[in-house]
Amino acid sequence: MLSLTDVSFSYKHEPILKNIHLSIQSDEVIGIVGESGSGKTTLAKMMLGLLQPTHGDITTHNERILPIFQHAIDSFNPKVKIKTSMEEPIKYQRNIDSKKVRQRLSDLMIYMQLDEKLMSRLPEELSGGQLQRFNALRTLMLEPDILICDEMTASLDVIAERRMIEILEHYHKTTQKGMILISHDLAFLNQIVNRFIVMKNGVIVDDFDKKDLFNDTRHEYTKKLLSIY
User: 190 - beta bridge partners?
Assistant: First the structure.
């Protein structure tokens, strides 16, 4: 479980997040949606502990929360082979069974249709889709309690995006681990999440189950996003 109580964050006296109250169970699949500048990425960084709140409390209840970063090419050292990059999290994560993680890595590579030979290549020798799958795999193999994905499909074409959705759905189905998917694309989120959190100007303006997406009680801003959906 992840809890945020009256959380606010300011940068250079400029308020970015305001009075955020949020509770997320460790098996939920949640979509956080809003236009650029709504505070989505700042909220993600606070959940990951990369930023500390100016006010309020964040409680992780000892859950392991890990991200899949948006730009795969920036997540890999261009001078080392993929295998070396995949081994790094195993070395530095505490309290994990490295043998199980390596087996999970092997199983997920098969599911993701990634040939073992790709492990001996440099990042620049892989296609964008292959590199993004390895980017996701490097986090998924650790099976965090809650996974945070911030605009991870933004650079993918429609086919690659659909494949990534299938990968995330498979991961949740087999592990029942929680996921927080952050995007400006409501259509993408609607394919996978079961709860929506809508942000505008650093404030949560709507929080509802997927089944209530088209309910008349939706916030006016949510209805605006739906009008371009």
Answer: none
Q: Which residue has the tokens 């929080």?
A: 207
pLDDT (tens digit, 9 = 90+) per residue, 200-229? Answer: 999 999 999 999 999 999 999 999 999 877
How far is CA 54 from each of CA 10, 57, 96, 148, 212, rounded to the nearest angstrom? Answer: 6, 9, 33, 22, 33
Give the distance, in angstroms, between the CA of residue 211 and the centroid of all CA atoms in the same chain. Answer: 22
In contact, 152 and 69? CB cutoff 8 Å: yes
What pLDDT, in 10s, does the model give residues 9-18? 999 889 999 9
How is residue 5 written in tokens? 């109580």
How far is the C-alpha of 210 from the C-alpha of 18, rounded, in Å? Answer: 24
User: Are the C-beta atoms of 150 and 71 separated by less than 8 Å?
Assistant: no
| The two three-digit tokens of residue 73, written as one number | 């090419």
